[in-house]
Structure formats: C-alpha cells, structure tokens
Amino acid sequence: MAERAGRKMKLTITECRHVYTGVNKKGDSYDIFEIEASKAGERINEKLRSFDALTVGVETEVNVVPFESEKHGKSFTLYPIGASKARSTSEGLNELRAEVAELGERVRLLFARVDGLQQMLKGAPAGTTPAANAALDEKFGEDAPW
Predict the structure, then answer these.
(1) Fewer C-beta within 10 Å: the chain N or C terminus?
(2) Cα 12–Cα 17–Cα 19 angle in degrees, nearest 5
(3) Does residue 112 sit in the same domain as residue 44?
C-alpha cells in the first residue's frame, strides 16, 4: 500500500472502540475504530480514528493523516506503521463474531440438555438422584460398590 501523506509519531493507545462497519465502493467491508491516545503522557484532545484495531496500552508508531468531513468535522486518521497494528480488523472481527455465535449456540444446547436432565431426575426412582446417592455414600462410604 502506498504511504499516505501525514506525520509519523509514536502514540500510546489508551482506548480503541469499534464504532462502525461499512462497505466501500468496491464492495469490501471496512471497520472504523474511535481511538484515544497520549503522547509523552499527555492526552491528545483531538478526534482520532483508525481502520485497524490498535493495541491498548502499547506505544504504537503511526502515520497521522488529517481528515475533513462535512458531516463529522475534522479528525485525524491513524495508520499503523510496521507490525504495531493488531490483526486485520475486518477478518478478525468476522472470525470473532462467528466464534461468539457458535459459542452462544453451544451454551443454548447445554442449557437445554441440563433442563432435560433435571426433568429426568424429577421422575427418577428413589435412590438414584444425586441427593440419594450422597446419603448412601454417607451411610456406606464412598467406596461402596455402586
């Protein structure tokens, strides 16, 4: 990618919030992150954004490019230099969203299974519930043959 006209500097990223996902004219998706940062311990009081997730708490070398929007006013876009940026954001976010959806489905299935097991235990014969087994263990010892 061609180097954008801007100013190189080292900033410490203090916050990185995903605020927007869009699709460009070519049909590629992109993400915008709202950034808070400091330089030499001083908070930067400007609107900062990035198309990459930047690692919080890490001093990051960036190219700072001014951006003027009729709708949002003046802001500065941070383009990480070298390996200081986090993993490709749209790919990483898409993977994360898919993983969260999969985990949500697995949790839902586990809850359904637990509910089913609880229903089965309610109708179980005497002496087969966990409480009954605990009482037997207490009476006969945990090494009983059942």
Answers:
(1) N
(2) 140
(3) no
Domain count, the chain: 2
Q: What is the pTM of this model?
A: 0.54
Which among 79, 103, 92 has a CA at the least distance from the CA of 2? 79
Query: Which tokens in the block code for residue 27?
Result: 């049909």
- pLDDT tens-place string over residues 53-83: 898 988 989 999 999 988 888 999 999 987 5
CB 78 within 8 A of CB 9: no
Question: Which are the contacts of 130, defined by CB distance < 8 A and separation ≥ 6?
Answer: 121
Together in a domain, 111 and 82: no
Whether 1 is in a domain gets the answer no
- The helix or strand, by DSSP H or E, that contains position 119, with its residue range, turns out to be helix 89-122
